[in-house]
Amino acid sequence: MLITENRGIYTSANAHDPSRFHSNIGVQVEGSILEALLEAERRVVSYSRGNDENFPTSDQLNIEEQNGEGQLRAKVITEGKIFHEVLTIINEAMAGEELWLGMYMLSDPDIIEALEYAAERRVSVRMILDPNQESFGREKPGIPNVAVTHRIAAGGHEHLEIRWYHVDEEQYHSKILFLDGKESKVLLGSINYTKRSLHKNNLENNLLIKTSEDTVFIEDVRDYFHRLWNNPDHEYTLDYEDYQDALSWFRRILFRIQKTFRLTNF
Fold it and tell me: ∠ CA(56), CA(57), CA(61), 5° rounding?
């Protein structure tokens, strides 16, 4: 997250050279939400035993009343509370609504179970995932995403679909959940949907945006997912079957051992 006296930017991007190829998402915010962003960062400084005496105050922010899309409501959510917000969004999705997930790593069993139950409720669940083939120049064996989706696909959920981001040198490093429904919700930021990230082992930073109106922002998020899913002008995503057999039986067993004994980075 980047904040100035005028605006803040939430993004899934790592600000370093090895991540320059990666596909990410980001959103710019202005107005009173900047106070919450600033306070969240001040608490990180304090937690890290840094000197926050010279930390900017809310009085130094250039906050103006925002016109235009006043229907949007934003909230800063960090660490373990992100996990509960993800479950709330998924569990409150209703039949006929669309639930979109764009994610670099997915492995948390509670989140996966909630997504499957949503599909059983006739929520249209569509996931775009990274195939986990590369990480900062090193080859990866498809863990966790290929292993996890193998089990999900075995459930044969009629209303749950998966596509892989078409990677080359890059990762699909986005972390975004979008409920397109009566009250649309977008949750985005730094967090992977893994146990290590969701259960207070990392300092994570997400932004929740809600609206009951079909705003320009919601249209942009919807267009982002539809463009990647349908490939109208480029081959952004591939069919699930393209990576279905990318994980050998040995690696599936290895994945289960890693999850059981927590010998993972996810």
Answer: 90
